[in-house]
Specification:
single chain, 208 residues, alpha/beta, five-stranded parallel beta sheet, 5 helices, rod-shaped
């Protein structure tokens, strides 16, 4: 996945020089440019850039105002502000407002590239952490669904087992009752046979 950077500056010279510097020294980095903060906000709302570079002093909406809007739209996207001579207080204010770093004019290209590279790495690391967090959350949800499904299966299996055991107990009880009834009937028949035998013996004796 390519790295995407947006540069916002109303100075045509810088708007040409900075992208060339980035393209020459940093691989796999796509650079977009715009000369107004309003157009930048449209682009930022539509695309998640890996880093944003903006001039502090611009007509219409300055860098601080743009920074505030960026913080609302993309709170974690690192923003580097380009400051002119004598704008140290504004640069400090920008850092307190959430800027990642400020680049002073005249621009030291090595410092600029190093700061931009760090900003991109930090943002990509944050993005990876967020992706892993979302993946773990999805995995946890899937595990929870699997546990719920397995729990239902176990509950249903236990219910079926209990029903089968209940039927078995009922059958055993019914069989026991039947055996007891049969035993009583046998005992009654045996008693009747004994009594009938006595009667026949008595009758034979009387006949003799």
């Amino acid at each position: 996945m390519s790295i995407q950077v947006l540069i916002v500056d109303d100075d045509p010279a810088l708007l040409h020089a900075l992208p060339e510097t980035v393209r020459t020294r940093m691989r796999d980095v796509l650079v977009e440019t715009t000369d107004t903060a309003h157009d930048a906000l449209k682009r930022i709302a539509a695309k998640d850039y890996d880093a944003i570079i903006t001039d502090l002093k611009m007509p219409g909406m300055d860098g601080l105002a743009l920074l505030n809007e960026i913080r609302s739209l993309r709170p974690f996207t690192p923003t580097l502000l380009i400051t002119g001579h004598g704008e140290h207080d504004l640069a400090v204010q920008a850092l307190r407002g959430g800027a990642y770093d400020f680049i002073q004019k005249p621009i030291d290209r090595d410092y600029f590239l190093a700061s931009l590279d760090r900003a991109i790495q930090v943002y990509q690391l944050r993005r990876q952490v967020e992706e892993q967090r979302h993946a773990l959350a999805r995995h946890a949800e899937e595990l929870e669904l699997q546990v719920d499904a397995r729990t239902r299966e176990l509950v249903e299996a236990n219910a079926a087992k209990d029903a089968a055991l209940s039927r078995s107990r009922d059958e055993i009880i019914q069989r026991t009752h039947a055996e007891e009834a049969l035993q009583r009937l046998n005992e009654q028949l045996e008693q009747r046979v004994i009594e009938r035998t006595r009667e026949l013996m008595k009758l034979n004796t009387e006949l003799v």
